Every structure is written in C-alpha cells, then in structure tokens.
Amino acid sequence: MSATTISDEKVAAPESVSSAVHRNLSSPWASFAVIVITILWTIPTLGLFVTSLRPSDKANQNGWWNAFIDHTFTASNYSEVLTGGAVIPQGIANFFINSLVITIPAVLIPLAIATMAAYALAWIPFRGATFLFVTCFALQVVPLQMALLPLLQLFNKGWKVNGVSIIPPIGGHGTYYQLWIAHAMFALPLAIFLIHNFMSQIPKDLMEAAVMDGAGHFRIFRTIVLPLAVPAIASFAIFQFLWVWNDLLVALTFAGGNDQVAPMTVYLSNIKGTYGSALHLVTAGAFVSILMPLIVFFALQRFFVRGLLAGSVKG
Amino acid sequence: MSLKTRGRSSVLIAGGVAAAFALAACGSSSGGGGTASTSPSTSASVSAECQPYAAYGTFAAGTTVSVFTSILPPEQQKFEASWAQFAKCTGITVKYEGSDQFEAQLPTRIAGGNAPDIAFIPQPGLLAKLAQGQNPPVAAPATVTANVDKYWNPAWKNYGSVDGTFYAAPLGSNMKSFVWYSPSVFKAKGYTVPTTWEELTALSAKMVKDGVKPWCGGIESGGATGWPATDWLEQIVLRTQGGDVYDQWVNHTVKFNSPQIKSSMDLLAAWMKNPLFVNGGHGDVKTIATTAFQDAGKPILDGKCGMLQQASFYAAQWDTFKKGAKIAEDGDVYAFYLPGIKADIPTPIVGGGEFVAAFSDKPEVQAFQTYLASGEFATEKVKQGGWVSANSGVPLDAYTDNISKLSAQYLTKSDATFRFDASDLMPAAVGAGEEWKQLTAWFGEGKPTDEVLNAIDAAWPAS
After folding, report:
1. Which range is least confidently modeled, A289-303, B108-122, B294-308?
2. pLDDT tens digits, residue range A103-157?
3. Superfamily for domain range A85-314
4. Contact of B74 with A87, CB cutoff 8 Å
5. Eight-state DSSP code of residue B220
6. Are residues B256 and B277 in the same domain?
7. pTM of the model
8. All residues at 6 or more sequence positions from A105 whose CB lies less than 8 Å from its CB, including other chains
9. A312, A197 contact by CB (below 8 A)
10. Are B183 and B330 in contact (CB under 8 A)?
11. Among A9, A170, A312, B241, whose CB has the most other CB atoms within 10 angstroms?
12. Does residue B135 form part of some domain?
C-alpha cells in the first residue's frame, strides 16, 4: 500500500534472490548438471587436441576417437606448425607476433579513450551528457559487418563534399594502423557502457572528500576512479583481447592477408592449403593460438566475474 | 614485472609503427623512379642470368607489386619460385597474398579503394562483373596483348575480354574432363580403361556386380560449395548437346529449364545420383553434398570406390591421403579422359583457368603482367610441377609429371571441342551463386529437378 512497504520489498528482494540462487546452485543435483555440461562442452576441444597429436594420414582418415584404439600419436604436427613445413614454410611465430602487435594497441586504445569518456559521462555534469551516453549505448546495435565497407572507403578515399575534403584519406593499407583504429571504434560503445556503469556506482562521498581536499578532475580520475574501476577495466580488456585475437574478418578487410601483417587467424585459414584440408595442421595451429588467450584469461581471471556483474547490474 | 612487459610491448608497437612508416616512405619515393632508372645500367653490366629479363626494365629498390589470389600454399611457393629470378633482375618485390575468401574479399577491397595491383581471377564471370562495375580493372597494355596473341588460342583471349575490351591474360589452365581411378585395383579386378561412354557405363555396372560402388563425389567447398556438381553438369551438356548449345546455355539463350539442359540433368541423375553407383566409401547419395571435394577421392585408394570425375589439379590431393602415392599408368592412381557420348562431337573438353587482371597502370605492374603472359614464365612455372598452361610457348617435355603432360596433350589437341567451364562464364550471381546452391540442394535435399532449374533461371540477372 504505502511507499515504505514497496521500498522495503525492493531492498529485501535481491538478498532473498541471491541466497536462493546460492542455495540452488550448491545442491548436489546442480553440481552434477554443471559437471555434465562441462564435460559436454569440453569434448570438441578434446577432439581438436587429440587430432592435433595424430599423424596426417590417420587424422584425415577417421575420427579422433579412433586414436584411443590405434594409439598412434606424434608431435610432428606441432613442429611443422612452429618451425614451418611444406604448406607454410615460415612457421607460426611470425604470425603470432603480428597478432600481438595488432591486439595490444587494439585493446589499449579503446581502454584509454573509454575510461576517460566514462568518467566524464558519469562524474562531470554537462548539458547533453545523458544524450551522449544513450547514443554511445545505442551504437552497440550497429553490426560491425555493416560498417566495414563505408569505413574502408573513408580510410582510403576520405570524405569529400562537393570536392571539399572534410576527412582526408589516411591510407596505410597493408599496415596496422587502419586495423587499430577500426578495432578501437568497434570496441568503444561497449567499453564506455561497461566502464561508465561501474564508475557511476563509486560512492559520491569519495569524490566530495577529494574535492574538499583540493583535487581536480584529473587527480580524482587518476588516483581514485581508475584504481577502483580496475575490475571493469580488466573484464573489458579480456573481452576485447579475445575478440581481436580471434578476429579474421576485420583483419582481412583492413590489413589484408600478406605475411608481414597477417594475424594468426589468417595463418590458420591458409594452412589448410589450396586443395587440402590439413586437419592435423589446423588443429595444432589452433592450439598454439589458444595459448595467449589462456594466459590473459588466467592472469586477469579474478577480476572477470566481479567486473562483469558490477557493470551489468545497473544497466 | 608488469612494468617490464609493458615496456617490451610498447617497443614492439613502436617497431611496428616504424616499419609501417618506412614502408610508406619507400612506396612514395619509388613512385618517381619507375622505368626511368633503366638507362644507366646498360646491357653491358647486366649479368647473363638477367639477360632475358632486360626487356622488362629495372626498378628502384622497394618497388612492390601486390598480388591477390585464391591460390594458397603450397601452390604459393611454386608461384614465388617461378618469378624469383624476374624479381631479382628487375628489382620488383612481389607481395603475394592468398585468401580462401577471395571471391568475397576482392569486390570489397575494390569498393573500399584498396584494390590489389594484380588479382588472379578464376572466373571470367567475376571479371565481367568487375569490368562493368565501378573502379574496373585496367585494360591490358599492348605488351600483354602481344604475348597473348602470340602464345594463346584466340578463344582464350576472348574469355579474358569484356564487351570488346581485353583486360586479363590467361595464367594457368585446368583440364576438367578427367576420371580418376586406381590402376592397381583395375589390374587386380581385370577392368580396362573405357574409351567410349558405353564402355564406361558397362564398367560401372560391372563394379556394382562386384560389390563396389563405382563412383564417389563430394561438392562441399566452404563458401563455394556446389562447384564440382556444376562441372559434372557441364561435362554432360557439352557431350550430349555440343559446343553451340553450350555457348547458348552460357549466354542464357538456352535456359536451364529448356529440354536440352533437363535431359542432361536426367542423365546426370542416372550417373551421380544413382543409388547403385554412389557414394563409394562415403555413404548414400546425400553425402555428396556434405563430403569435402578434397576428400571425395580418398576411398579410391582403399578400393571402396571405383572412379571420381574431377579436374587435373586433383593430382595434388593424393599425396595427402597416402604419402608418396604414385600417379602413373602403373601406379596407385591415375586419370583417364572422360569419354565423349556422341560421335559428331569430337573430344569434348571442359577446362578452366585463371586470368591476370590489373587494377593499376604503374610501369612495374605492367612489366610484371607482361612477364606473367610470356612463354618464359609459363615454362618456369610448369617446371615447378603440378601446373598446366595453355600457353603454346611451353615445350611439352618441360612438364615434370604425367597428369600435367596428359592434360597438356588434350588441351593442345587441335580438333577437340574445347569449352571453358560454363559456371565460370555465367554471371557470378548464377555461376558462382545460385547454381552452386541449387545443385547442392539437388544432391543434399533431393530437391526436384524442375524446381532446381527454375530457381537457377530466376536468379539470372535481368538486362
């Protein structure tokens, strides 16, 4: 009836829900279901791994489970992938480094822009802040594939209105910087949204205390907000890293596929050869390429779930 | 720790940026150089091994020509080896880029304003679409035209032209009218290689009686799934209807749902959709749609399938099934010519090939284009093996393997009824789209023949 009961319910609800969730998830049946799902989801990866250890004739002959019957395993697929072989002579190392050179700036650039934008949108009151934020948020619905061609034209031809150059062409096809800019652009809406929601939950008292002590926006941003926002930043960094690391389409479109700039995904799609389906090499290459995301994930894992939840609750 | 890694990664990035700028700088400085720098290094200083390449000129260091193609390793290395000497003597660096997404990527890159200097286009239909679109390829320079006139049958030049403008010189050629079989199995079972269609049908029936499915096939090929099926249809159309109807079919004056094509489909159904005949070693008829074309012929080596109709380039595939598989008349596997059906259509041959289109008229691009159209290049490439050219500048004894030689023998036959792969000549919306899709449904879902043919006709672009 009255306002108080409603607000009481509101306060009480999350607790009871979360405790109910907790109770349900720790029941033996739930654990059993989780174990079954985990096994089911891991089987394809296991199949990949087993195939990567089988000699080429066996791998192309029958399914990976036969490996447990014929017991023929070899490491030669990995040595061919690492040091080069008949299909791709230079090996994967070159492409691994290309992938790193593409991915690291493509994670750092949007992070740098998004943290500052999110801070400004959350804590600097100015006219149109809400409109800007909603626009950023709304841009998430634009599919990347739709923007590829216009963006490519903008990069290479610039934008002219009646012969007046509004945006000059930046050129540089076959190098990295088109790729970095493109990845940064596609990442920004989600990054700003995620980090903004996290930052806006930081207690206002902290900011006010800092202002009382004479701190300006830059100082507050650097010494208070950034350290507190690390979980959100880390979880976004993982997202973006995995996305860019596994990306083939954007890399092919903006950087092209020649050996000097091609990321590992291009290597993986080419190693099967013109006519061949070199399963044994593709799987071994795939496992080499999994290494880096695994390292990143385990290094930042403790932030991951926290950051995800914190960013999403308010949205 | 984190400081250390951060420092290293920023060095990496800085290195990448520096390399990028260095590249850009090279590109712009060489632009002015061009052929002008030819004169100082006169023929006296040119070494003997570079003598044949003197005509192409020499270029400033760092001059690059980018090549975009659907041809992936290990064929890439053979291409690079065949023009290595040219690159060394002229100073041109050839940047090779292969992608299995070539058909989709090329139009995107052209529209986006970063077309490659040179593209190897395997479909004249795609070439026509590009030539009629915005930013068309550059018409072939006179030096390329001269080479093509000198070395190729006029039919080939015709296939590289659109609306009377000659754009693209032919590169490699495929002989598609082959049937792969295992000579050792044939010998053990007492089969003989058929030379007429009746003998081929009799042989198939004999294999069925012996408990072996005579034919295997696979048309799965990623984004190009369905293309091997179009080849089968073309073999039948050319063999039963002849070259004139075939040409009219390509121009759509004979439609897909016309009686001629319908009867060809019926004959194809009696052959590759015959549940008694297919799909040896793979399963039932439907597995044709889901078997990768690369894997289709594998059961031949195990004796689980008798024959596979597939092009000459399939020779590269056998080694992946069986290391060191011997491709010879007395070896593990070999090919025979798919016999003709009617006596008044002599030696029908369906073939294919790539064409070299240029999107830049820079002197280094034209020099490379000219070289690619020469007999010298074709001979160098033929020596790398596994590659056939219809270029008459290649001596037959340059061929290193039996299949290439056999292909060249048929491709150079003067009385043969040679036609280019029809699906590559049709508009890309049909030949590289609807026909693939519909024939895949024909095999995979058992879609009725009439519906399939009508759907392909409906996809034919107006105009």
Report:
1. A289-303
2. 999 999 999 999 999 999 999 889 999 999 999 888 888 888 888 888 888 888 8
3. MetI-like (1.10.3720.10)
4. yes
5. B
6. yes
7. 0.72
8. A176, A180, B13
9. yes
10. yes
11. B241
12. yes
What integer pLDDT is reported at residue B39 of this predicted model? 39
Name the residue range of residue B144's domain. Answer: 59-175+352-406
Backbone angles phi, psi at A259, to 5 degrees: -55, -25
| Helices of type H across B112-213 | 124-132, 142-151, 154-159, 183-189, 197-209
Helix (H, G, I), strand (E, B), or coil: what is residue B137? Answer: coil
| d(C-alpha B192, C-alpha B186), whole Å | 7
- List the beta bridge partners of residue B420: B351
Strand duo B213-215 + B118-121: pairing? unpaired
pLDDT score at B75: 83
Q: Which of B11-25, B257-271, B426-440 has the lowest mean pLDDT?
A: B11-25
- C-beta separation of A114 from A188 below 8 A: yes
Per the listing, tokens 């985990």 go with: A38
Place of tokens 């619905």: A141
Average pLDDT value for residue range A210-214: 89
Please choose, from the candidates B153, B172, B216, B227, the residue with its C-alpha nearest in 3D space to the C-alpha of residue B438: B227
Backbone φ, ψ for residue B95 (5° rounding)? -95, 110
Q: Which two tokens stand for residue B310?
A: 């597939």
**A264-301: per-residue pLDDT in tens?**
888 888 887 665 567 788 889 899 998 888 898 888 87
- How far does the CA of residue A43 sit from the closest CA of chain B (Å)? 22
What one-character DSSP code corresponds to residue B315? G
Are B256 and B331 part of one and the same domain? Answer: yes
Chain B residues with CB-CB distance to A under 8 A?
9, 12-13, 15-17, 19-20, 23-24, 66, 68, 71-75, 77, 95-101, 105, 108-109, 111-114, 292, 294-295, 298, 313-314, 316-317, 320-323
Spell out the residues 6+ positions from residue B172 whose beta carbon is closer than 8 angstroms to its own: B353, B354, B381, B387, B388, B389
Is residue B20 domain-resident?
no
Radius of gyration, alpha carbons of chain A: 25
Q: Poorest-confidence range of A149-158, B9-18, B70-79?
A: B9-18
| B254 and B369 together in one domain | no
Beta-carbon contacts below 8 Å between A and B: 121
Question: Locate tokens 């001059």: which residue?
Answer: B63
Asked if the Cβ–Cβ distance from A57 to B322 is below 8 Å, we say yes
d(CA B155, CA B157): 6
